[in-house]
From TrEMBL:
Residues 27-427 form the Damage-control phosphatase ARMT1-like metal-binding domain. This is Sugar phosphate phosphatase. Metal-dependent phosphatase that shows phosphatase activity against several substrates, including fructose-1-phosphate and fructose-6-phosphate. Its preference for fructose-1-phosphate, a strong glycating agent that causes DNA damage rather than a canonical yeast metabolite, suggests a damage-control function in hexose phosphate metabolism. Has also been shown to have O-methyltransferase activity that methylates glutamate residues of target proteins to form gamma-glutamyl methyl ester residues. Possibly methylates PCNA, suggesting it is involved in the DNA damage response. InterPro entries: ARMT-1-like_metal-bd_sf, ARMT1, ARMT1-like_metal-bd. Its cofactor is Mn(2+); Ni(2+). SUPFAM superfamilies: AF1104-like. Its EC number is 2.1.1.-, 3.1.3.-. It comes from the Eukaryota. GO terms for molecular function: metal ion binding; phosphatase activity; protein carboxyl O-methyltransferase activity. It catalyses: L-glutamyl-[protein] + S-adenosyl-L-methionine = [protein]-L-glutamate 5-O-methyl ester + S-adenosyl-L-homocysteine; beta-D-fructose 6-phosphate = dihydroxyacetone + D-glyceraldehyde 3-phosphate; beta-D-fructose 1-phosphate + H2O = D-fructose + phosphate. Transmembrane segments: none annotated. Belongs to the damage-control phosphatase family. Sugar phosphate phosphatase III subfamily. It holds the Pfam family ARMT1-like_dom.
Length: 454
């Protein structure tokens, strides 16, 4: 047995498609090739557009990109070794170094390959190879193969967005008169709306419609029993307690960072939460962190972020467009800012961030609270490892803690920590798919600096 396959110094092995029949295995065998087929189909369907924009060169690029993607799909299906990247971008070297690192960890007997290596790594690698195929074909390098799905999911959730903005309008009208308890109540609601917004990603459904159709506020009560761990009181405390040298409690400047996940309804809920934090003066500054290229089908890029705010502003609904205008002004006056960093589109566990992306780690240290949205961020927080369900969140973070942090995640992969003894077993017997269906969620908080460990 190799080191990568067993628990070493209390750190369990990575989830991998090596375990036949596991969720990782089914993802690599079925869902990932399906996503690649859809990508190929999207590029092919846009052939005429490429021709109109770039003439014959566009057609050549379309053909070559498809040929590279088909080749990769075949490598995946036949469990071939992962290949070094051949484009020369900012992150190419670091991806290739990571491959060597994996090979070292795995030992020399077997090559690092799609079914034999950590699932987190190979899944991230697939999205980076999609980009490589595009980047090697310059006229269409910037084409976002997932854009159609992302915009469609935005439009399909419009009714829920309108409902949410109507709620926000009512809230804003009375904001000044709210007691602390009322503020807490609204905070909890909007935190949960943002939590459940994470149900709507397009990766788990391999690109199929997964938009929000029901009223997000009205559903909260019935969803409550599905929140397996709810540390929202600790999140609230982190928000209201920051006090830096020279600041009183009343004037403390609070910065919240939101590490975004999906476009569409989820991003919308994150923006609503961020707007509430600023309007209520719980925070004075929000830093959003997104991806620098299209990622895991529906993740937010700078383009999606700007587009969503523009669309909201242009909506044919009074309160929705008012929200959009408000969001624009947060961006203009600097209360909101959007950031990206290559680390978010790399395969590393977050416990490696301090060593492998010290600049990003230092940036996050400036926050009073960091909200990590979604399943993939949870997998990276916990290293996507075979932890016991009763292992604490703090243990699974393995020292990662640039600032007080909270994961807002619906469960879509089989890693879950921080449960009570017996809770995982009970859930498993009631609902065998509890870890992957997106039906359950967690709000899990950790503050590495606090005395009290989880
Ligand atoms: O396999 C399902 C999956 O693609 C996971 O890899 C990933 O964790 C998840 O879906 C994406 O979910 P989210 O958008 O919440 O990160
Ligand atoms: Mg996602």
């Amino acid at each position: 047995m190799m080191a990568a396959d067993r628990t070493v110094h209390g750190v369990p092995p990575s989830l991998s498609a090596k375990v036949v029949g596991s969720f990782a295995y089914l993802t690599v065998r079925d869902r990932m090739p399906t996503i690649l087929t859809r990508v190929i189909d999207t590029i092919h369907r846009n052939k005429n557009k490429f021709f109109e924009e770039y003439g014959e060169e566009g057609i050549q690029a379309e053909k070559q990109t498809i040929s590279l993607l088909s080749k990769m799909r075949n490598e995946l299906l036949t469990d071939k070794p992962l290949l070094e990247l051949t484009d020369s971008l900012q992150d190419t070297e670091s991806w290739n170094q990571y491959l060597q690192r994996q090979q070292k960890q795995q030992g020399d007997q077997d090559s690092v390959s799609w079914f034999k290596s950590p699932w987190l790594y190979v899944e991230c690698y697939m999205y980076r190879r999609v980009q490589e195929a595009l980047w090697l074909n310059p006229p269409i390098s910037d084409y976002d193969v997932f854009n159609e799905g992302k915009t469609q999911s935005f439009f399909e959730s419009q009714q829920a967005m309108m409902t949410l903005c109507t709620y926000v309008e009512g809230l804003n009208k009375n904001m000044e008169g709210l007691s602390k308890n009322q503020l807490l109540e609204h905070f909890n609601k909007l935190l949960q709306v943002s939590l459940w917004g994470n149900k709507c990603d397009l990766s788990i459904s391999a690109g199929q419609d997964n938009s929000q159709k029901t009223s997000p506020i009205d559903s909260l009560d019935s969803l409550q029993p599905f929140i397996l761990v709810n540390d929202s009181n600790r999140v609230w405390s982190a928000l209201i307690s920051p006090q830096r040298p020279g600041q009183s409690k009343e004037t403390a400047l609070v910065r919240v960072d939101i590490v975004l996940d999906n476009s569409g309804f989820e991003l919308f809920t994150d923006l609503v939460l961020a707007d509430f934090l600023v309007s209520s003066r719980l925070a004075h500054e929000i830093h959003f962190h997104g991806k620098s290229f299209p990622w895991f089908v529906s993740d937010v890029t700078a383009n999606d972020f700007q587009w969503t705010i523009r669309q909201t502003t242009a909506a044919n609904h009074k309160w929705m467009s008012k929200s959009g205008v408000q969001w624009m002004s947060h961006l203009k006056d600097g209360a909101w800012s959007y950031h990206d960093h290559p680390f978010w589109t790399q395969p590393h566990e977050f416990c490696d961030m301090e060593a492998d992306a010290p600049d990003l780690y230092a940036t996050l240290q400036g926050a009073d609270l960091v909200l990590f949205k979604g399943d993939l961020n949870y997998r990276k927080l916990t290293g996507d490892r075979e932890w016991d369900h009763t292992a604490s969140f703090h243990t699974a973070l393995r020292g990662f803690g640039p600032a007080p942090l909270c994961s807002l995640r619906t469960l879509k992969a089989n890693v879950q920590v921080g449960l009570q003894p017996g809770q995982g077993e009970r859930l498993g017997s009631q609902d065998p798919e509890w870890m992957t269906s997106g039906k359950y969620a967690v709000v899990q908080f950790d503050n590495a600096k606090s005395e009290q460990k989880d």
